Amino acid sequence: MLGSRTDLHIFDAGSVNGTRYCNEILLPYVRLFRGAMGLQFLFMDDNAPCHRTVADEQLLESEDIERMDWPARSPALNPIEHVWDFLGRRLAARTLPPVTIRELRLALQDEWAAMPQLLIDTLILSMGRRCETYLAVRGDHIPY
User: Fold this and answer.
1) 48 bridge partner residues
2) Where is the Tc1-like transposase DDE domain positioned along the sequence (predicted)?
């Protein structure tokens, strides 16, 4: 979010399904933000199958959380995809790349903490421009 962020949430081993998404993301994080922001809150995720289960929909509806409409196959619109890219590049640039799961977890947490908040804020503030460009090209490839 603008001006702040939570700690990086790393799922423990196993697949992320709708139940885990509800219990580990929607309830502890999204519900908290919705409560803090009030009616101006608009939730953005993507079309990942674990984000679109009946349980997810019911939870968001029960918490009066409005979800942003999201076009299929549009990762360039989502700021988090650029954050993941940044983290991946930072990990790849390390002199000693992580070789164990524990090292990877620690490295991700370190890089997340070191990421400039300005980068996140700039990505969020670019959403309007990204959406306008997407509409202008009618959902086709965005040239950048």
Assistant:
1) none
2) 46-94
